Amino acid sequence: MERLVLIKALVPRLLFVLHSLVGVARVTLVLKNPQYWLLALLNLLLLLETVLTLKFKRGGGYRWFSPAIFLYLINIIPSLWLLEMYYRNQYCRTQSQMSQNLSRKSDFNQTQMSHEHTFGMEIIEMGRNLVTNLSSGCDQVWTLGLHETLLLVLILGRWLLPIGGTITRDQLSELLLIFVGTAADILEFATQTLNEKDVRSNPVLVFAILGIWTWNMLQFPLDLPVQLKVVCPSKVKARGFASLFFCHYSSDLWTICLSLFIQDGPFLVVRVILMSYFKVISHMLVFFTVKNSLVIMLHLYRLVALILATRESLRHQSEGLRAAGRGHDQPSESRLREGTDESCPLASAASSADSHPGPQ
């Protein structure tokens, strides 16, 4: 096993485990129940997957699907569900508290200069201040930070994981760009929709939004948007519209289905229900509703364009076959002469007598 492949297989999985443990620690601290540490046992699944990958795949990746990312989502999503369901409408530290911290920091710097503390003592004190600020942070900041780092860890982890199957580096870069756009939309949905006060006061809405969010996160272990690009053989083109359409545009169709049924479609339904039934209206909610509507309409327009392109291709193909058939059916002038000579021996004999007359 190459050392580079081993490092690329272990580092992302270690990053997944550490981030999921941070989520479990935050849940245990907020809910004040040490039994929630049992959520950390979910990492045993990721450990088992790592051992099997190193043994049977030699650290390499998989085709179509990434089990490591899927198990990481299984580890971290329950912690985020618990934090969101326990979410308290508390305010973060005020500006006065922050100014007090800044004044304390300046006092410490003056004391440090007067007493000529070493550089190591300064690092230790900065670490203590960081730990204090993190531990005293409000629930909103921690939960939002876990949402943001979850998406960043997913993208970085997929980038670092070994390339599996037939995926190329060009396809991997395209997949990562797709993940970045998808992550931005998911973060907007999770933070902007759940931050509405009327939504927070309704546990059913919170549960439904988290369900849609979880459904969206399940697209990250899949590599289908880039691995479905194939070259259609000639025999597929002769089978008709459906075979040619699904073979030639399989990647585009997956992207369209992803938007309609996993991402923009569910987002649009949730936001329309919030505005029409629950009367939750805000500028940002209206903006993102219009955005989801435009994306869906553009994908439908793209679908119509692909259908028309496939029909045009089949029409040109059929016209080419007809032209080739007519050219094949029309005999050439030389073949007509040969056919006349073979079918009419008397005519050929007469022509030879005219050209060579006998003695008179």
Automatic annotation (TrEMBL):
| A Pfam family per the record | Tmem26
* Coiled-coil region list: none
- Swiss-Prot/TrEMBL keywords: Membrane, Transmembrane, Transmembrane helix
**Start and end residues of each stretch annotated as Disordered:** 319-360
Q: Where does the sequence pass through the membrane?
A: 12-29, 35-52, 64-83, 203-220, 241-262, 268-290
Q: Where is the composition biased (Basic and acidic residues)?
A: 326-340
The name this protein goes by in its record: Transmembrane protein 26
Q: Which organism is it from?
A: Jaculus jaculus (Lesser Egyptian jerboa)
What gene codes for this chain?
A: Tmem26
